[in-house]
Structures are given as structure tokens and as C-alpha cells.
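stage 2 :: seqdesign
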């Protein structure tokens, strides 16, 4: 990822900032409809992002494990019936 940033000349600007710049470039008189209720500090923001990533990984891991268990259970049932025949 670092090599790609060096080759492409990335400055490390986030997608939120790039989107805001693009909006104001297209329509300079644009004004947001609302303001943020709360702007967390950078440390809290990164912690919330990490928590969100961990929660997403846990949900995905649970789903994949659940599906694998279903397939394994069905395979066992199919092979038990074949063995009893």
C-alpha cells in the first residue's frame, strides 16, 4: 500500500476530504444541510474505527463459521445415509 501511494503520488488525504473538495469544485455555493453533533478527537475516532472493524470481523467470522457448520452437518447426514444403505 505504501509503494502504491509513492508511485501514485498520494498525499494521504482521506476520501471524506476529497469528496468535500469535489463537491465545492462542482458547486461552490453548496452549504451542508446540517452540522456535526459531536466531533471526536483523533484518538477516539481511530478507536471507534478499530471497534467497528473488529465488530464487522466478528460478525463475518460468525457467519462463515455458521455456514461451514451447516455444510459439514449436511455432509455428515448424507454420508451416514449412504453408509446405512
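stage 2 :: out
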Amino acid at each position: 500500500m505504501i509503494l502504491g501511494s509513492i508511485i501514485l503520488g498520494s498525499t494521504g488525504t482521506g476520501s471524506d476530504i476529497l469528496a468535500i473538495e469535489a463537491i465545492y469544485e462542482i458547486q461552490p455555493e453548496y452549504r451542508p444541510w446540517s452540522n456535526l453533533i459531536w466531533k471526536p478527537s483523533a484518538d477516539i475516532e481511530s478507536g471507534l474505527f478499530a471497534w467497528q472493524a473488529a465488530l464487522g470481523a466478528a460478525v463475518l467470522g460468525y457467519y462463515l463459521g455458521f455456514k461451514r457448520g451447516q455444510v459439514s452437518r449436511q455432509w455428515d447426514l448424507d454420508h451416514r445415509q449412504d453408509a446405512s444403505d
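stage 3 :: structure notes
- The CA atoms of residues 40 and 62 lie 30 Å apart.
- The mean pLDDT is 85.
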